[in-house]
Amino acid sequence: MSSSDTKIITVIGSGLIGRSWAMVFASGGYSVKIYDNQPGQSTKAIVEIKKQLQELEDAQMLRGEATALQQVALISSYDDLSQALEGAFFVQECVFEQLEVKQSIFQDIERLVGKDVILSSSTSCLVPSNVFSKVQNRSRCLVSHPVNPPYYVKLVELVPHPETAPAVMDTTHTLMTKVGQAPVRLRKEIDGFALNRVQAAIIAESWRLVQDGIISVKDIDLVMSEGLGMRYAFIGPMETMHLNAPEGLEDYMKRYGPGIQRVLTSFGPVPDFCGEGSKGIINASKTTKRAVKSN
């Protein structure tokens, strides 16, 4: 497959995610071409990127070894797709989260690039088999799902299409590591990927606990921000369990597994997040926000 020795990456879409990806890739020394089908938008994106990079440099938070101006100089804007794709070894798509739009842009891209160019989507909720269903050569396709904003939160989920070549996963993993991200590999596609499935489980149980009158909106947020979140910012659930028992994970499950199973069987159904019962939670959340802002 293609080598990252070719230093050009094309970013499709100049919105928040597209701009963030451009900044990340430029921080790693890559030349970045930003394309947007709305005339002038990619040029405006570079103006915004320059402002952000200078602010980061002033705050001593700039990523990479080059200065802000040197990184900005690596980024160029295009209204013409063929020109934007010329010379790229990797394409990161960041258009609207609409399946038909993504399918269409990848059809256009495939007609304009060589067979070894890697096609990557930033989608957060569409599986690769759907996103790339109209691409002929799906062996070079994958999802590289960032956490918003990618410049500050480094995790990237690499999700393969059922036909994705292992070398494509390897090249993308190497690229993401080189630019300072923290890539994780999913072995196969699944709805929600990994991060959003874990997040959905937390959201659902938090919602149920508030809805059932067990805890307030403010306090369930504290459970995460002053409890689990503090722990999981440093170590994940598997390592936590391994360290919480004298003889590791197997010992932990012998001690606490039955209790975990008992709790899990007590979970209720998936909440109706938009139903009549949600109004009280939404109103409480607004009150909490106002209290935070006033402090």
Explain what you see.
The chain has helices at 16-27, 41-58, 68-72, 81-85, 99-112, 128-131, 166-178, 195-211, 217-232, 237-243, 249-265, 278-294; strands at 8-12, 31-35, 75-78, 90-93, 118-121, 141-146, 155-160, 182-185. It is of the alpha/beta class and 295 residues long. The chain has two domains: 8-185, 3-Layer(aba) Sandwich (Rossmann fold), CATH 3.40.50; 195-294, N-(1-d-carboxylethyl)-l-norvaline Dehydrogenase, domain 2 (Orthogonal Bundle), CATH 1.10.1040. An eight-stranded mixed sheet has the order 3-2-1-4-5-6-7-8, with helices on both faces. α1 crosses α2 and α10 (237-243) crosses α11. The longest helix is centred in the first third of the chain and has 18 residues, at 41-58. Pfam families: 3HCDH (PF00725), 3HCDH_N (PF02737). The record marks 145 as: Important for catalytic activity.
Order of SSEs: EHEHHEHEHEHEEHEHHHHH
Low-pLDDT parts are 290-295
Task: Name the helicity range.
Answer: 40-55%
Q: Return the CATH class of the largest domain.
A: Alpha Beta
Strand order of the largest sheet: 3-2-1-4-5-6-7-8
Distance between the termini: 54 Å
Quick check: average pLDDT? 94
Shape annotation: globular
Number of strands: 8
Largest sheet: 8 strands, mixed
Write down the domain tally. 2
Strand content: 5-15%
The H-level CATH homologous superfamily of the largest domain, spelled out, is NAD(P)-binding Rossmann-like Domain
CATH fold-type name of the largest domain: Rossmann fold
Q: Indicate the structural class.
A: alpha/beta
CATH architecture of the largest domain: 3-Layer(aba) Sandwich
Q: Please count the helical segments.
A: 12
| Rounded radius of gyration (Å) | 22 Å
Keywords: Cytoplasm, NAD, Oxidoreductase, Phosphoprotein
GO biological process, one term: fatty acid metabolic process
Family: Belongs to the 3-hydroxyacyl-CoA dehydrogenase family.
GO molecular function: L-gulonate 3-dehydrogenase activity; NAD+ binding
